[in-house]
Amino acid sequence: MKDMGLAHSVTTVCLAGSLLVAWSPAVAVPPSQSAATSAAARSGKPTKVKGWKAARHSPSTGRLNSLHVTGPARRRVKVQKKASGTWANLRVLRTTKHKVLHAGFIHGRPGHWRLRVPARGPGGATTTTTVHIPGTSGGQQAPASFDDSAPYGTSFNADTLANLNMGGKWDGTPSYRFTAEQSSTLNAVRVHLLEPTHGNGYAAGTGGTIRMTVQTDNGGVPSGDVLASREFQWSDANGSNFPLFRFGSPARLTAGQRYHLVFNNIDSSPASNYMSLNNMYTFTEPTPRQPNHSDSAFFTTLMKEGSAGWKVWNGYTPNVDLTYGNGAHQGQGVMDIDTAHGSVISGRNEVVRERITVSDTDRVVSGAAVRIARTSGSGDLVVSLENANGDVIDSFSADTSSVPVIDSSQDGKAGVWVSGNFSASHTLSKGSTYNLRLSTNSGTTLWTRGIQQGKMYDFDPSTYFADGELQVSDDAGSNWDVVPGLWKDGDLQFYFN
Fold first, then answer.
1. Residues 361-375: b if buried by 16+ CB within 10 A, e if exposed
2. Secondary structure (3-state) at 40
3. Spatial distance between the Cα atoms of 469 and 325, rounded to a whole number of angstroms
């Protein structure tokens, strides 16, 4: 498509490797690119592109997932990109009645990229806005939110909590491997810590002295190259099992690069004086370890015992919140799980739902996945998308005959993922409330194990799914309660497609 030579609105974002790591929250638009008036549209003048806004970026996948373009409703808009030479079409969409176009997943790569949206007006005239994306690192980083490059929901599975000794009988040294989402200093780390009052096997003696270091990666394991160091004892936690430890001289990380947080007990008697880190644990580890998250990029637990080499500790997922110097957070903020009884789904009366109020941006969903187990029967699981009043928008049924039978009262496996598609895609509008409701027939009893957000432990909302609340009913939905122990911080193990 021919560039009409109109004034360009330009912003700069930075790519490190293949990862999009920064974006200006909004781009100032010259007066020549203001929205077309209705008179202009009637006269056959071009539809003007009013502005650009990147609602969210995803460093872990190198995607700019929402490019918002404002203009008159129902206009045909073609999104294009190029590094050099010929423009390549990404997709052709129409603006909505709200005059916002979601241009979808636009991949950033190294090099000098341009994006443009020719907005076609009456008579075929176009207006083109160009955004330059140089493939260099650095620049101010936008604070991240919950990673919405992954499907909307918790996108997390867990069966229980499990601890990792720092020292102790096996002289353990844990490491949390992660891929940085920001090019910034790593100022502080929040962890889930178990001190000597938890008893033998968890901690003992004084708890020891732990040296926490930030190290570069060498083939998936810590390199030994220390970028920053901080020592702590239990007294430094100020009585909290979820302490925030700050670095005096923070390391500067580069988005897209892998690093390790290594926890080494340097006490003179680490077998007698030790503490533990707590992790979420899955007895049968799926691939990937957490749904919709890359094992190579997402938080991974490694362990070194004595003089042995480093090993990935299968089934473990760290509880951790990283605080960057630019204000962004990165982490895994699911803190606990309902191991008491599970939430029962059976017949007309016993139903479960995730109550969701959408934040940040509209979400388009076409189906869902939930993690469940079975007590008896083999009837279908019915998954219903409802509005705030409980009216069904759409639903699907999922076969449960292959779902394992598990005793919900045991602290053990919490089931498998089942999924399905709605009859059509649906937009969950920002600010609106919806339910994802689970039910089955009277001859079947299923259950699901809720997980707990780290809200009450001061984990940042970007590290967990903050839009939802797990609720249960034993009277067919006439009354709804939260799950005891999880309270208002509970979530389903679920995600939307």
1. bbbebebbbbbbbbb
2. helix
3. 31
Burial of 210 (0-12, 13-18, 19+ CB in 10 A): buried
Distance CA 64, CA 41 (A): 30
Distance (Å, rounded) from C-alpha 473 to C-alpha 52?
Answer: 44
Give pLDDT, residue 13.
30
Please answer whether residues 194 and 278 qualify as being in contact, where contact means their C-beta atoms are separated by less than 8 angstroms.
yes
Mean pLDDT for the chain overall? 77
Q: Do 160-332 and 343-496 share a fold? A: yes
Q: How far apart are CA 429 and CA 309, in angstroms?
A: 50
* pLDDT of amino acid 360: 86
Query: Degrees (nearest 5) of the Cα angle 438, 443, 447?
Result: 40
Q: Using the structure block, give the residue that is written with the tokens 């999009």.
A: 20
Measure the N-to-C terminal CA separation of the chain; round to a whole number of Å. 34
Cα–Cα distance, 458 to 447 (Å, whole number): 29
- For 89, list phi and psi in degrees, rounded to 5: -70, 135
Q: Which CATH architecture has domain 343-496?
A: Sandwich (2.60)
Token pair listed for 243:
């302490």
> Fold for domain 160-332?
Jelly Rolls (2.60.120)
pLDDT at 54 over 50: no
Contact 353, 471 (CB under 8 A): yes
Which residue in 221, 284, 260 sits closest to 417, CA to CA?
284
Average pLDDT over residues 148-171: 89
Domain ranges of the chain: 15-133, 160-332, 343-496
Which two three-digit tokens encode residue 343? 């939430």
SS3 196: helix
- Convert the pLDDT of each residue in 415-443 to its tens digit: 999 999 999 999 999 999 999 999 999 99
> Before 222, cis peptide (omega within 30)?
no
Give the number of other Cβ atoms within 10 Å of residue 356's Cβ. Answer: 25
Residue bearing tokens 């042995």: 308
Q: How far apart are CA 325 and CA 143, in angstroms?
A: 10
Q: Report the run of H or E that residue 96 belongs to, with start and end.
A: none
Q: What is the pTM of this model?
A: 0.71
- How would residue 33 be classed by pLDDT, with cut points 50, 70 and 90? very low
Q: Which CATH fold would you assign to the domain 15-133?
A: Immunoglobulin-like (2.60.40)
More confident: 459 or 61: 459
